[in-house]
Amino acid sequence: PVRVADTRPPSQQPTIAAGGTLRVPVAGNFGVPANAAALALNVTAVTPGGPGYLTVYPCGASLPNASNVNYVAGQTVPNAVIARVGSGGAVCIYSSQTANVIVDLDGWFAPSPGFTGLEPVRVADTRAGQPVAFPLPKARLQAGQTLEVPVAGQLAVPAQTGAVSLNVTVIGPTAPGFLTVYPCGVTRPNASNVNYAAGQIVPNAVLTGVGNGGKVCVYSQQATDLVMDLGGWFPVT
């Protein structure tokens, strides 16, 4: 891992203002080839000025309706991110509130067929009135419920897809619990992807296989709202 951005003083990189964007050139630097297609990053929000979120996306693209890190005022919150490289070999980081940001680089992906990064797109949002790429039930998950989310064969993801890169966020659960993301059609595993306490907003990056009908399943131990953003896909091997 290598640190590629840190806006905290005495860094020359500025703190991100509310509604601002930090451009981080990576491809062609830090041992990453200029033709790298996507990057494996760890992105940390540091002492933001209020509740909000970070969105990581390819520079040159429009700001997507997606998030990677959710925070409240004064928190230090990290999350893993797989991000497609944009114009000038850079990724852009938007912050809804004033915040310092740290970006650490873990690796890179060659151009497909290894991994195909996408501009992040929201594929599930159980909250009423929130936009989503295709219709899903606009109702909170109930305790013990599993939501099926179609991804393969949708939104530039081929029907024959082995796995997908997601960012999954829990919003306002009623009690402590966990989420498990897994391929639909298999027995739910004894594993968790997001752990939460009552009332929290907690995101996590997830790599999961694609199951029956091109779907991934999301199980929640407790009642909660759920947001899922799609960041890319891996071919069948």
Task: Characterise the protein shown here.
With 237 residues, the protein is mainly beta. The protein has no helices and 16 strands. The strands form four sheets. Strands 1-8-3-6 form a four-stranded antiparallel sheet, with no helix packed on it. It has a four-stranded antiparallel sheet with strand order 2-7-4-5, with no helix packed on it. The radius of gyration is 17 Å and the shape is globular. The mean pLDDT is 94.
Key phrases:
single chain; 237 residues; mainly beta; four-stranded antiparallel β-sheet; 16 strands; globular
Summarize the structure.
By secondary structure, this protein is mainly β. The protein is built from no helices and 16 strands. A 4-stranded antiparallel beta sheet has the order 1-8-3-6, with no helix packed on it. Strands 2-7-4-5 form a 4-stranded antiparallel beta sheet, with no helix packed on it.
Shape: globular
Low-confidence stretches: none
Q: Please identify the structural class as seen in this structure.
A: mainly beta
Helix content: under 10%
- Mean of all residue-level pLDDT scores: 94
Write out the strand line-up for the largest beta sheet, numbering strands in chain order: 1-8-3-6
The CA-CA distance between the termini, in Å, is: 27 Å
Element-level helix/strand string? EEEEEEEEEEEEEEEE
Q: How many DSSP H or I helices?
A: 0
Major sheet summary line: 4 strands, antiparallel
Strand content: over 45%
Number of strands: 16
Based on CA atoms alone, the radius of gyration comes out at 17 Å
